[in-house]
Specification:
This protein is an alpha/beta fold. The chain folds into 2 domains: 153 residues, 3-Layer(aba) Sandwich (Ribosomal Protein L4, Chain: A); 44 residues, no CATH class. The protein contains 7 helices and 6 strands; from the N terminus they run ββαααβαβαβαβα. It has a 6-stranded mixed sheet with strand order 2-1-3-6-4-5. β1 and β2 form a beta hairpin. The longest helix has 17 residues. The protein is elongated. The model has no long low-confidence stretch (mean pLDDT 93). One of its GO terms (molecular function) is rRNA binding.
Amino acid sequence: MANVSVYNIEGKEVGTMELNDAVFGVEVNDHLVHMAVVNQLANNRQGTQKAKTRSEVSGGGRKPWRQKGTGHARQGSTRAPQWTGGGVVFAPVPRDYSFKMNKKEKRAALKSALTSRVEEKKFIVIDEISFADMKTKNMANMLKNLEVSKALVVLEDGNTNAEVSARNIADVKTAKTNTINVYDILKYNTVIATKAAVASIEEVYA
């Protein structure tokens, strides 16, 4: 089992913690990690892109000139794709980009992402994040003490003060143990998790 240091919000080491290899020590599957990221981005796409084909563009009902004898190439409509103001060839239409990943694949991808963060020493465990009030400076000071920027902070349920304190910091995102995903784990430079959150993740995914 991997041993990681446990810090407090002042950035001081207060102990160590053993991580469960079933979650934080698996063999990293790059293919599944990539697939999970593509899946999330595809599922988030609105799919509302639209352009008009030649049958949808207004005008162009009359043949611009007779078929033969003008010296021009024959034309049937001024709304054909080769004309300015004409329709688009194979125009994009609203569609659903989402695709399904199996539950086992999703779990394996998440474990791979967490393992890669532990291996890269970009996974920090905090004993607890308890702020007396909801102030941005509380979270900013904690990140400064840990010498971290652009972080994903994983919290246990009910930690509203920490959640709200991070809301106005541009490069920080909070997540609960049931909302963490591969894309966010890889997007942010560091993953910070409380001991309670780590225990919850191990309970769900081990």
